[in-house]
């Protein structure tokens, strides 16, 4: 059976969506640590600090940007590890989240910045060697725009990793964008793991996808995580 757009659904623009209780109160990333059981290292399969230190073997500086970072706990812990090995001045850590609920850093490190802002409008002032977004895209309206921005913010050898349920990206009639979108993303330089619902890429690139955002549905219900999520509806431009 073809699943279409819910009858009478009112699509929200970015500003209205960010006031939604589903978006503002989500707790997916609130307490995730750098390493351990509930951690970035476990989710990603690698420790972000290792990526930075590896990068520093051939570069003067290295940076990690975490979109939808929650409390910023993992970044705060990473800053502590980098300080202990004397790499504070050579690293930049930036976390961005819509909700200003950041955890306290025992000693505010010079290499850490936690920003309360919308990922739909915020932009960095430097490229990054690692950009992550763990479960944050579930709550973003224009997910495709965030993917394009992240690609543009990478260094030439930088790495981007994010959780993305492609079934949450819908066409105007509510049908999932499906295989055509998957193929276009791969043509644009992204890899997609459908089993883990994980999107990634290596290296900066200019990404243009033939979709225009119509609005977002914050009443789409739970996704594969069991938490309420947001569907994005797009008009396909051929």
TrEMBL record:
Keyword Methyltransferase: yes
Residues covered by region (Disordered): 218-238
Highest taxon, organism lineage: Bacteria
Keyword tags: Methyltransferase, Transferase
Keyword Methyltransferase belongs to the record: yes
GO biological process, alphabetically ordered: methylation
Any one GO MF annotation of this record: methyltransferase activity
Official protein name in the record: Methyltransferase domain-containing protein
Organism: Micromonospora purpureochromogenes
């Amino acid at each position: 059976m073809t699943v279409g757009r819910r009858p009478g659904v009112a699509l929200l623009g970015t500003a209205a969506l960010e006031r939604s209780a589903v978006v503002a109160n989500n707790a997916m990333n609130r307490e995730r640590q750098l390493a351990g059981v509930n951690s970035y290292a476990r989710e990603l399969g690698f420790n972000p600090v290792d990526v930075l230190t590896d990068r520093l073997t051939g570069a003067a500086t290295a940076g990690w940007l975490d979109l939808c970072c929650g409390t910023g706990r993992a970044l705060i812990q990473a800053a502590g590890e980098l300080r202990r090995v004397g790499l504070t001045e050579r690293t930049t850590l930036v976390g961005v989240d819509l909700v200003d609920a950041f955890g306290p850093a025992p000693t505010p490190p010079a290499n850490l910045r936690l920003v309360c802002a919308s990922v739909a409008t915020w932009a960095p002032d430097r490229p990054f060697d690692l950009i992550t977004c763990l479960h944050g895209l579930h709550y973003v309206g224009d997910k495709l725009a965030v993917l394009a921005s992240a690609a543009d913010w990478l260094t030439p050898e930088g790495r981007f990793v994010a959780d993305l349920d492609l079934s949450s990206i819908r066409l105007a009639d509510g049908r999932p964008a499906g295989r055509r979108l998957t193929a276009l993303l791969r043509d644009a330089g992204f890899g997609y793991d459908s089993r883990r619902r994980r999107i990634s890429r290596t290296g900066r690139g200019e990404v243009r996808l033939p979709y225009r955002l119509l609005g977002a549905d914050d009443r789409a219900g739970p996704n594969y995580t069991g938490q309420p999520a947001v569907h994005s509806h797009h008009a396909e431009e051929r």
